[in-house]
Design goal:
This protein has one domain. It is mainly alpha-helical and 399 residues long. Helix 2 packs antiparallel against helix 4. The longest helix is centred in the C-terminal third of the chain and has 41 residues. The protein contains 17 helices and no strands. The protein is globular and about 55 Å long.
């Protein structure tokens, strides 16, 4: 239950990730060990990570503030809110995450059983995999039917420029991220992703006075989208240094239908969060901050404990997403959305400065025009994920 509470807090609070709480648990381990056994702390870390992967869609959809896992969902989800379908978007996400967890359970067992024999070959392929992902992101950019084939290549050129520009910014940000590490909650992801994805959406939202009445309707996701997202999350979890943000890129590239887009993204997010622990169990390698803390707690790798607690919190998290969304909607439907957008943008400036200092603020401000360019050029914002992909490629090939 404590892991669930932490997952709700980290999922709803901009700038706070489940890795933040995992790091805090490790930092205060001598104190916490008086109240919890290492096994109990491991359950808290694991359940926090899973619940977070369900809850973090809510601020992305309703106020346009994403994290790494949900960044590219901001604009399609925001469009659904403006159409009165915000609750539908979140219901698709919640059910997709639940289905992804269930689909990932047999994959978890397969990884634990067979992965140790194939790990070295997979590790060697990682840089080439990232290049293929980059080509896929750019080439999957398409024009509208009436625009013609030349327009498609023009959009791909725009996408390449945005990919390279955001990639350069990401490379600089990660190269000097020590300048942004001012406290335990600091992360260079905060200014980088809020600048590329959240701030542009909020700026564009200034022209929206009030959001329409939201239709309370639960909609089932597309199963092929959930399956592709789950498999993308599984594939990305295999590669060192490749984050869940890359899984969302793979799962959603080429998708224009916003409902399928959200389903694929949410599935990839939850699948990757879960299967990072499978990699830890199978080969003892770390693929997430939560898995890293789990390893450092020095506890026995209890498969049944992880699987049963995971299934329990996944079911409960689905219900929690619906309840929290209904509460949020009662709040945002009563206020002017342009005022809310301005207040959230101001809050983000403060969060970035407090958590990452002057360097983080500089990264945040530099990222905003890159994010805005995707809106004005009418290309998919998935190209901004070059901020994660390109630094990984450069680190693998040049360093």
């Amino acid at each position: 239950m404590l892991g669930i509470v932490l997952g709700i807090i980290s999922g709803l609070t901009p700038g706070i990730h489940n890795n933040t709480f995992a790091a805090m648990i490790l930092a205060y381990l001598p104190l916490l060990s008086h109240y919890f056994t290492p096994q109990e702390l491991g359950v808290i870390v694991f359940t926090n990570a899973i619940v977070h992967s369900f809850i973090d869609i809510i601020p992305s959809v309703l106020i346009g503030v994403p994290e790494e896992d949900t960044a590219i969902a901001v604009l399609p989800a925001h469009d659904m809110v403006l159409d009165g379908k915000g609750f539908e978007a979140i219901s698709i996400s919640a059910i997709s995450s639940l289905m992804a967890f269930l689909l990932s359970t047999p994959i978890f067992l397969l990884f634990v059983s067979f992965l140790s024999k194939l790990y070295n070959q997979i590790y060697a392929f990682a840089p080439h995999f990232l290049i293929l992902v980059s080509i896929f992101v750019v080439m999957s950019e398409k024009a509208e039917i009436f625009e013609g084939s030349f327009a498609a290549w023009r959009k791909r050129m725009y996408a390449l420029l945005v990919f390279l520009t955001s990639g350069f910014l990401g490379f600089v940000a990660f190269e000097y991220q020590n300048l942004a590490e001012v406290n335990i909650a600091s992360s260079i992801f905060i200014p980088l992703l809020t600048g590329l994805f959240a701030a542009p959406t909020l700026i564009v939202s200034f022209k929206t006075n009030k959001i329409p009445k939201q239709i309370i309707n639960i909609k089932m996701p597309s199963f092929p989208s959930v399956l592709s997202g789950s498999l993308s999350g599984a594939l990305v979890s295999l590669f060192p240094g490749v984050s869940s943000g890359i899984a969302t890129v793979m799962a959603s590239a080429g998708l224009k239908d916003r409902e399928k887009f959200i389903a694929a993204l949410s599935s990839a997010n939850t699948s990757n969060a879960f299967l990072c622990f499978a990699i830890l169990f199978a080969v003892g390698r770390v693929r997430s901050g939560a898995a890293s803390v789990f390893l450092k707690l020095g506890i026995d790798k209890d498969l049944s404990l992880v699987l049963f607690s995971g299934i329990f919190v996944s079911l409960l998290s689905t219900l929690l997403v619906f309840i929290l969304t209904l509460l949020f909607l009662k709040f945002i439907e009563r206020i002017r959305f342009d005022y809310l957008s301005f207040a959230v943008l101001t809050f983000l400036f403060l969060v970035v400065y407090v958590l990452t200092g002057t360097f983080g603020l500089a990264v945040f401000i530099a990222a905003i025009p890159i994010g805005l360019s995707t809106i004005f050029l009418k290309i998919r914002r998935i190209s901004c994920m070059g901020c994660l992909v390109l630094p990984l490629i450069l680190n693998n090939y040049l360093i």
